[in-house]
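Customer ticket, subject: "Can you confirm the structure for Ribosomal RNA small subunit methyltransferase I?"

Message body: Hello, I'm evaluating your service for our small team and ran a test protein. I'd like someone to confirm that this is what the system normally returns, since I don't have a reference to compare against.
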Amino acid sequence: MTLIYQTKPLSAGLHFLATPIGNARDITLRALDILASADVLAAEDTRSLRKLMEIHGVPLNGRHVIAYHDHNGAQVRPRLIALMQEGKSVAYASEAGTPLVADPGFVLCREALEQGIPVTSAPGPSAMIAALTISGLPSDRFLFAGFPPSSRGARLKFFSTFAPVPATLGFYESPKRIHRTLEELCDTLGENRPAAMCRELTKRFEEVRKGTLRELEESLRDAPVKGEIVLLVGRAEQGEVSEADLDTDLAEALGAMSLKDAAVEVALKHGLKKRDVYQRALALAEELKAEGAEGDG
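Agent reply: Thanks for trying us out. I re-ran your input and got the following:
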């Protein structure tokens, strides 16, 4: 039998590895190498990691899987840090996806770095990136906002802070709260914002619903859904900008950056085509140059 992983010495330190968000075959070969080779295994969900290793034929070989999650982090971190300081390689896997993305691994990473312990990452699956890939929403600039708060007041304040952000927004949400979230987003961001609800990504019943926030909210009123959800919200459409305001913004940007960068920044700010703004920036730069030459004369 040919093994798909390699067992080889790992350097002492913390080795983060991404795990599948649904389809077990999305594990990377490097992640399997780390699981097979690490001195110590730590996981947000030990049962999920054990099952994943069984599926891919990676033996424990007498190693224990240490549980590390939000509820026991303060107690377990010193033990993991001590093991790494003793020269052990520690592999950490979140329950699903990439560690530190809505995951308790952040504090472990920070403390390891503060102690001078090397930290490496074996990248792989991420629900946020998978959703963005198939949503059809702009991906040139996006913001991952994580899980919204639970109380209504905190949620409305939370959502409102993202209203002016010129980027695609990404939220993780439970099926029990997704309809409520869509209602509140309609109130805070505007019901006509384009959106995509991505559910059960990489799994058998994967689904992507696209439409405005209001259209998605209406589709869930009498038809609740199940499964893991990533909700993406497109940037707000910008209103018309006057030629004078456009020139003012371009002139200011041209004073601080290259012509190309200035055009990109102003185009993103006003939701305009980069090519059109670049042509205007080019003409404006020539005008400013000519005015400067006249002043020198």
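A couple of notes from the result: The chain has three domains: 13-125, 128-233, 243-292. The radius of gyration is 24 Å. Feel free to reply with more questions.
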